[in-house]
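Subject: sequence -> structure tokens, single chain

Hey, anyone have a minute? Need the predicted structure for the following. Not urgent.
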Amino acid sequence: MSEPNRGIVLYDFLYCQGGAERLTLELARGLPDADLGFGFRDSAAFPDASLAGIRTFDLEITARFPGGRTLQGMWAFRTRTQFIRNYDWVIYSGSVAPEAVYNHPRNSNIYYCHTIPRFAYDLYSYYRRRLSPWQYPAFKMLNVIVQHRYPRALRRMDLLVANSENVRGRIRRYLGLDARVVHPPCDVEGYRWLGQDDYYLSSARLEPYKRVDTIIKAFLCMPDKKLLVASGGSELGPLKRLAQGAANISFTGWVDDQTLRCLVGRAIATIYIPRDEDFGISPVESMAAGKPVIGTAEGGLLETVVNGETGILLRPDVDVQDLISAVHRLDFRRAVQMRDACAQRSLQFSRDRFLGQMREVIEAR
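Reply:
Had a minute. Here:
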């Protein structure tokens, strides 16, 4: 590349259609003359067609085990990204992509933080308890490396941007740094009220901290209420076994965007109760379709869902009985009454608003 380009977005790993991955593509598509670099791409989740029109750079990280992927990712972004010197600005995202900042010393460096690497900070004890004794030494070594290199890279940034006040608070608490908040975008035009079928929807990734097991246990106690679980993850097998024999609980696995929009648009309401969620785009998508949210009064949901107006927020240590009560309170009649307020609230998180704020961030540097 002989001529300088306007900018490039660097992200860790494109391996599932999560909120961070979608935001990365929004930046690459929506910002002027932006290219995209990543450490790894799952071609099933992100086929070539999904990246059409974007100039991409693949660092070809091959490790699949999470810890190994993190270490190889740090090395790859540090040693294989000399090409970013040709760009006027770089937006880094993820926990390993910031290692590339050393290859872009004189121009504008912006870090968009979806979350700090929580296994090394606030959720260290949570992850530690889930490890076998033989796994702990490697986990401890990984934490030492991340806690040394991650904040060091962030201190070289010109500006930190957090996806929520919740994440901004973590950056302050654990790293002693401040950030500007720019909420992630939602395709508010793509989600629509399509009617109301007889099911509640869970679209959270099936990982332990998302607490989908609590949702399933609640619906096991409500055989007259239907639950549709429209996602995948490491807990898919155990959760299917938990719901085995329950005619009112169904799993779709991961679905494409069009199918998800249809499922959201026809639900009574959505249920989303992760543990201290960073931001959480699923509740915003639900509201964009005029569907209220049953969630928890913690994390990013405090910035999106208005309790009593666009959903019901339960105590952070939500249990099965809390969910049962909330589902009965948020029946199909009450859900319809919240429709207009939900749609109006979602406009605060539109794509145009997000891209406008990010352009201001770049221009301010």
